[in-house]
Amino acid sequence: MAEKIYLFDTTLRDGAQGAGIDFSLSDKYAIAKALDAFGIDFIEGGWPGANPADSKFFDNPPKLARAKLIAFGMTCKAKKSAANDPGLAQVINNKSSIACIVGKTSTFQVEQILKISPEENLRIIQQSCEEVVKRKGQGNSMFDAEHFFDGYKDNPNYALQCIESAQAGGASWVILCDTNGGSMPDEVELIVRQVVEKMKQKNPELNIGIHAHNDTGNAIANSLAAVRAGARQVQGTINGIGERCGNADLIAIIPNLMLKMKLATSVDEKNLGGLLELSRLLDSRINRVPRTEAPYVGSAAFAHKGGLHGAAVAKNTRAYEHIVPEIVGNRRNILVSDQAGKANLIARINNLKILDGKSEVKPQAIDRLLEQIKIREAKGYSYEDADASLSLLVIKAAEQYDEFFNIHRFRVTDERRWNALGEEVIESEAVVSLIESHNGVSEEKLTAANSAQGPVNALDKALRKGLAEKYPSLKNLRLADYRVRIIPPEKESSGSEATTRVSIDFIGKNGEAWTTVGVSANIIVASLQALADSYRYLLFREMQSQKTA
Length: 549
Hints:
Elements: E1 6-9, H1 25-38, E2 42-46, H2 52-59, E3 68-74, H3 86-92, E4 98-104, H4 107-114, H5 118-136, E5 141-146, H6 148-154, H7 156-168, E6 173-178, H8 185-202, E7 207-212, H9 219-228, E8 233-236, H10 250-260, H11 275-285, E9 303-304, H12 307-315, E10 333-334, H13 342-352, H14 363-378, H15 387-397, E11 404-418, E12 424-438, E13 441-452, H16 455-467, E14 478-487, E15 499-507, E16 513-520, H17 523-548
Parallel strand pairs: 1-2, 1-8, 2-3, 3-4, 4-5, 5-6, 6-7, 7-8, 9-10
Antiparallel strand pairs: 11-12, 12-13, 14-15, 15-16
Helix pairs in contact: 1-11, 5-7, 6-7, 8-9, 12-13, 15-17, 16-17
């Protein structure tokens, strides 16, 4: 049986120190429950007493099925008793299972930052760990050896003395921290191996862990190097969030441990398929767009753009994929662009699953569609992520297209004024004239108007208002994201003639998400194209469902 590696998540504590990240109490509960369900061993919930949210979290912690909840905090202060330190008491006296105490293990940090003697630092480490064991019981004390790798390089004997003090105080785990994130993988592997060998001789029961920061881009590599050298706990965060350049990314580390290094974790193999969902949960909670190129879970992780790659993957996916994407909850994505060949396009059409079993795109139509896509991309369109807009082109090529409606005319006006309180008010109004259209046959004309804070929002509301009676399901659409890219003109002298590309993400009633794209020199026209594509895509899917019901 493979040796087990324990997983320690510090998203809710160390991850929360990242720029622009602020977890609400509901965020902390949701993330902790998701981590527990996924199979994480230890969940660091925060620092009791450091802020109101963390204190409330530990006053009423979530009920976890298997993970141990960790409270984090500092050793007692210098020249004070651990038994009478109020800060340490808050870390211990709460409903967490385990307390993780952080202390300095570098003579530079001790003498220059804490301004205390090395001997006093050893005392506060040992007594703080002893106090945790006294109040929480044996096996419920962890020690984070802060600045350990820098300290070991400067003075290895003292760094080891700090670990021995934590061990003497009853710490069941000692975690070696690359706090400044400046160590290289070869250094980490060598130092961890030396520490494991020396400490195991004195205390075979002592467990060693690794806590890496990403300031050199090596946090994942350093964590795996430490495991090779004997570390049996890995600390990190979801998506690698954290202070400065972030922490080790557990979303990449976990599959690397299980799939590449063949090591056991508490994550069940079938739960590994929830990796992408866990990553997306965190992004949603902190309102960040998922990182496209993220290993294992990024939308581009199993994307194939070049015609050569697409053709090879169509024959055997191992040609350009290191694992089956579904193992981690992801999927293969055959991109269609001006670099794509026919094999890419056919594979992408099959992946879209937009056509029923009776419909197909004929070979001649495939050639025309491929040429059409390349011409449109030369004008600024991009179909790599815009599945819904690409689907509409495929439907047309398969002669299954129903336009549902045409936009006959539209007008958008903006007004800037001041209200009675002297506050600036900016309001947009959109008026649209629509013509119902089915299978090329035009029907009655509809007109609708609506106002909103911005021109695109006003246009979206006016369009839906005009179509609401005929297509009530459009009211359930949620606009999730709106992105604009300015594409410079080919001639430098024509700067004002740049093209605008608008991409819009929509989420339907059942949680299905899709993206559309529009391109024009006019941002409103580009937005209108993307909006209309989104509505037509939803209506086509509904029509398809009705046919198969």
